[in-house]
Write a structure and sequence with these properties.
Length: 20
């Protein structure tokens, strides 16, 4: 999974692999 899927989501995890 990419670090950031070009989506302005909040920093859920340090790696940010899963953000809702």
């Amino acid at each position: 999974m990419a670090e950031f899927q070009a989506k302005p989501l909040q920093p859920c995890s340090i790696m940010g692999d899963k953000c809702i």
